[in-house]
Amino acid sequence: MNVTLGPSKLGGTATAPPSKSYTHRAILASGYADSATVRDALWSADTRATARAVELFGGSVTRSDDGTLSVEGFDGTPEVPADVIDCDNSGTTMRLVTAAAALADGTSVLTGDESLRSRPQGPLLEALSDLGADAASTRANGQAPLVVTGPLSGDRVSIPGDVSSQYITALLMAGAVTADGLEIDLETELKSAPYVDVTIELLADFGVDAEATEDGFAVPGGQSYAPEGGEYAVPGDFSSISYPLAAGAIASEDGVRIEGAHPSAQGDTAIVDIVDRMGADVEWNRDDGTIDVSKAPLEGIDVSVEDTPDLLPTIATLGAVADGDTRITNAEHVRFKETDRVSAMAEELEKMGVETTETRDSLTVHGDESTIRGATVDGRADHRIVMSLALAGLAADGETTIQGGEHVDVSFPGFFGMLSSLGATVETAD
Ligand SMILES: O=C(O)C1=C[C@@H](OP(=O)(O)O)[C@@H](O)[C@H](O)C1
Ligand SMILES: C=C(OP(=O)(O)O)C(=O)O
């Protein structure tokens, strides 16, 4: 689907979609439980992949009209799946489900789309093998398809922290239901660290203890997953909030209000401070969960995305509109996502007349709002590239056509509807 946007003047209210990270964890945690209800869940291509995996492990996930999920779990012990687990485009699903599969008494096979089959799984496969499971890549290249035979038996493992924090989340969630629990030692510094905080916060809400240690993380074994009152409610998603927030900073006439922005452990809440530091007029009322943002002249800043990889595409677009250089550092792990997002943003923004400079772990955007022009750009089949290029289209001179608009379904199915309700001119064509 091609989506064409023109220069727009925005105003009004946008509602944050539910968090993808919390929804994945809540669905799988409910799978590990006897049963649980997940309120305000995100229902998107990625979270449906996690729900399918829970069903293949012997659970069931039923969605009601108001978005509530009723999950019958597999109660700590996944069944051997009767089919291949297709994780589609979702890295979170593949990592979290691979560790769950290592608890089953038999063999699971996991695959995904072309993008997911090119992402790194090696460190997790090695960790699970060190713990006594048999976990391998069919192509012996550390990438899916994966074949995992459980059950695992060990209680201590070491793993690098600079490829994906999702390995740690996966091991913590599975470790809680093993007999002896798990000690996880980090071999290198942890990137994307707030995502492990999200995990520990959610585990606590499901009555499961896990903690940071001097060398990494630890989770006692023999625990049962059970949220208080049998229910868990998903908070709003700050990676998704970054788009209406940036749209307001770039293109609002009367200001944009975002609702559903309640504080949680998400590192991507940093976007509020980033937009503020760039010069936009922004106010976050944490008590009522609203953010008000208005356009103001933006200036380039230095920002590390070590903890917040998913913000890189949004920041790159903000940088394109800002005056001067925006230097995005500590970004190497952002190359291991649905696409290499450092290169993708550099190359696609350049098509719009924006100058950029890339190193292995940084992206500098040489911003100048007066030079951004409409162009046909490739969304790279990556939801965050599509959404960030759409934001650039709001500020460009002339029309911008983004190829692959349907990929927003991965994390923010209502994205283009949200932009047009704020007043953007959005046209779609197959
Ligand atoms: O655990 C999670 O929910 C996520 C962790 C991050 O990945 P990495 O830990 O691989 O950087 C992030 O990019 C992804 O969108 C969601
Ligand atoms: C990288 C992302 O997700 P995942 O790793 O789950 O594919 C994302 O949502 O930007």
Describe this structure in words.
The structure is a single chain. The chain is an alpha/beta fold and 430 residues long. It has helices spanning 20-32, 45-56, 91-101, 122-130, 166-175, 194-205, 238-251, 270-278, 312-321, 341-351, 383-395, 415-421, and strands at residues 2-5, 10-15, 35-39, 60-63, 69-72, 85-86, 107-111, 134-137, 146-149, 156-159, 182-186, 211-212, 216-219, 231-233, 252-259, 281-285, 290-294, 302-304, 324-329, 355-359, 362-367, 376-378, 400-403, 426-429. The protein folds into two domains: 2-17 and 236-429, Enolpyruvate transferase domain (UDP-n-acetylglucosamine1-carboxyvinyl-transferase, Chain); 20-233, UDP-n-acetylglucosamine1-carboxyvinyl-transferase, Chain, CATH 3.65.10. The protein contains twelve helices and 24 strands. The strands form six sheets. It has a four-stranded mixed β-sheet with strand order 22-23-1-24, with helices on one face. Helix 11 (383-395) links the parallel strand 22 (376-378) and strand 23 (400-403). Helix 1 (20-32) packs parallel to helix 2 (45-56), helix 3 packs parallel to helix 5 (166-175) and helix 9 (312-321) packs parallel to helix 11. The mean pLDDT is 97. Phosphoenolpyruvate binds next to helix 3.
